[in-house]
Design a protein that fits this description.
Layout (H helix, E strand, L loop, with lengths): L1 H20 L3 E7 L5 H17 L3 E7 L2 H14 L5 E5 L3 H6 L3 E2 L16 E4 L2 E5 L2 E2 L2 E6 H6 L13 H14 L4 E4 L9 H13 L19 H15 L10 H10 L2 E7 L3 H8 L3 E4 L10 E3 L2 E6 L5 H11 L2 H11 L2 E2 L2 H4 L13 H9 E3 L6 H16 L4 H18 L6
Parallel strand pairs: 1-2, 1-3, 9-10, 12-15
Antiparallel strand pairs: 3-13, 4-13, 5-6, 7-14, 8-10, 8-11
Helix pairs in contact: 2-12, 7-8, 15-16
Length: 421
C-alpha cells in the first residue's frame, strides 16, 4: 500500500514538474483597437495561433479606445508599467523612441524586405516598429462628373497641375450643381487629419514643417517663399468658396460626396468602400495634384513595437515577427479596408488585388507617400500646424500666421534640446 502511494505521489510530482517545464511565459500587449470588433477579431486570431504554435510564450492583449490610447501609454511609461508589446502610430514612433518607451526591434530583416518603406518605423538608423498595413489619401470623385465638365482624368504618371486643379474646381463651381466643388474634410480638426492630409500640399509646393536635413529649424521652411505661396493658395480655396471651411458639419464630411453636396472629396482608403458601393464603376480614386515639386500624400499608420521595460524582448520580437506574414496582412485588409504592406499581400486582398475596386490605393501609397517629419518633435509641430491652417482658412494673415507657427516650433525644439537630433 505504501509502495503504491509512493508511486502515485511520484507520478503527480512528475506531472507538476513537467507542466512547469513547459509553461508559457506571459507576454503582455496593449492595443488601440477597443470598440472595433472586426480589427480585434483578427488580432485575437493571430494571438491564438501564435500561442499555439510554440511552447515558450503566451501573449495576452489588453485593448484601449483609440482616442485614449496614446495618453494611456504615456501614463503607463511614467508609472513604469508598460507591457511587453505596444502598437504605436507611425508619426508618433520617434517621440516614443526618444522618450525611452520603445526599443529597437530585433527581427529577421528578410521578413520586412518587401514591405512598403513607410510601414517600417525607422529613427536614427534603427528600426523601432513595423506595421501590417498602410493608409493613403486620394481625390474621390465620379467619372461622369469630370466628363460633364470636360476635366481631364489624371493618372499617377500625369497628375493634375495646380492650374488644372484650380480650373476644374472653378468650372464645377460655375456649374452650380454642388454646394462646393471640393470637400477637404475641414470638420476633422480635432485629430491628425490636418497635418496628415494637408502638409503634403505644402510639401508639393516646396515647403515643409521642418528642415529635414537637421530637424532643428522650421523658420525659413514652413514660412519661406514656398510656404507663403501654399498658404495663400490654401486661403483662396475658402475665399473663392471652392471648399467648406472650419465650420463644416461633420455629417457632411461623412456623407456629403455620396449625398451630392460635393463633386470631389479628399479622403482616405478607409472611406473608399462606401464610395464604391454608392457609385459603382463610376467612382474614381485620383492621385494627389502636383503643385510644382511632385505630388505627395501622407504616410505611416499603426505599427508594432517592443517596450523598453519588457522583461522578455526576445519573446516580444518573436511575436511581432510572427505577425508579419502576408496572411495576417490580408486578414486585416479584408476586415478593415487597410492597405497591405506588401505587394504579395495586396495581390491576395479582396479590395487591393489587381482589378479590385481599390487597387489604386496601393500604388498611391507606393508612389506618392511621404513620411511625416521623422522627429520626436512631430506631435507638437503637428498641433501647431493644425492651428495655423485653421486660422489661415478662417482669414488670418498668411505670413504672420506661418511666422508665428515657425517660431513656436523652433522654441519647442530648443526647449527640448533638439530632441536628440
Amino acid at each position: 500500500m505504501n509502495i503504491r502511494l509512493t508511486a502515485l505521489a511520484t507520478t503527480a510530482l512528475g506531472a507538476i514538474w513537467g507542466a512547469q517545464a513547459f509553461a508559457q511565459t506571459e507576454l503582455t500587449m496593449w492595443y488601440h483597437g477597443a470598440g472595433n470588433p472586426e480589427e480585434s477579431a483578427v488580432l485575437d486570431q493571430i494571438v491564438e495561433e501564435f500561442n499555439a504554435s510554440q511552447s515558450d510564450w503566451s501573449v495576452v492583449v489588453q485593448s484601449f479606445p483609440a482616442g485614449a490610447y496614446n495618453d494611456t501609454v504615456i501614463a503607463g511609461a511614467l508609472a513604469g508599467n508598460l507591457p511587453d508589446i505596444i502598437d504605436v502610430d507611425g508619426p508618433v514612433m520617434p517621440s516614443w523612441a526618444w522618450a525611452g518607451y520603445i526599443q529597437p526591434l530585433e527581427i529577421d530583416q528578410s521578413a520586412i524586405e518587401n514591405f512598403l518603406p513607410t510601414a517600417i518605423g525607422r529613427w536614427k538608423d534603427d528600426i523601432y516598429s513595423v506595421g501590417l498595413w498602410e493608409a493613403a489619401v486620394a481625390m474621390v470623385t465620379r467619372r461622369s462628373v469630370l466628363e460633364k465638365y470636360g476635366i481631364r482624368i489624371p493618372t499617377l504618371a500625369e497628375p493634375w497641375t495646380r492650374d488644372e486643379l484650380d480650373a476644374a474646381l472653378e468650372a464645377i463651381k460655375e456649374g452650380g450643381e454642388f454646394d462646393y466643388p471640393l470637400d477637404l474634410g475641414m470638420a476633422w480638426s480635432a485629430d491628425e487629419w490636418y497635418p496628415y492630409a494637408f502638409a503634403p500640399f505644402l510639401q508639393s509646393f516646396g515647403g515643409d514643417l521642418i528642415d529635414r536635413s537637421t530637424y532643428l529649424e522650421a523658420d525659413g521652411v514652413l514660412n519661406g517663399d514656398a510656404g507663403i505661396e501654399f498658404g495663400e493658395w490654401w486661403q483662396s480655396l475658402f475665399d473663392r468658396e471652392l471648399a467648406p471651411g472650419t465650420s463644416q458639419d461633420p455629417a457632411d464630411r461623412d456623407s456629403g460626396l455620396i449625398d451630392g453636396k460635393y463633386a470631389m472629396s479628399w479622403n482616405g482608403n478607409w472611406a473608399a468602400a462606401n464610395a464604391v458601393k454608392a457609385f459603382g464603376d463610376d467612382v474614381l480614386f485620383l492621385p494627389a495634384p502636383d503643385f510644382g515639386n511632385g505630388p505627395k500624400i501622407g504616410a505611416a499608420s499603426w505599427q508594432f513595437a517592443v517596450s523598453t521595460s519588457s522583461d522578455h524582448p526576445e519573446g516580444a520580437n518573436q511575436f511581432i515577427e510572427f505577425m508579419l506574414q502576408d496572411r495576417w496582412q490580408v486578414a486585416f485588409s479584408n476586415a478593415q479596408a487597410v492597405i497591405p504592406a506588401t505587394s504579395s499581400a495586396a495581390a491576395e486582398s479582396e479590395l487591393y488585388a489587381e482589378g479590385a475596386p481599390m487597387a489604386v490605393f496601393y500604388d498611391l501609397s507606393k508612389e506618392q507617400a511621404l513620411l511625416r517629419p521623422v522627429t520626436p518633435g512631430y506631435p507638437v509641430m503637428a498641433k501647431i500646424f493644425l492651428k495655423a491652417l485653421a486660422d489661415i482658412a478662417s482669414g488670418a494673415d498668411v505670413a504672420d500666421t506661418l511666422d508665428a507657427a515657425a517660431d513656436e516650433i523652433d522654441a519647442d525644439i530648443e526647449a527640448n534640446s533638439g530632441y536628440g537630433n
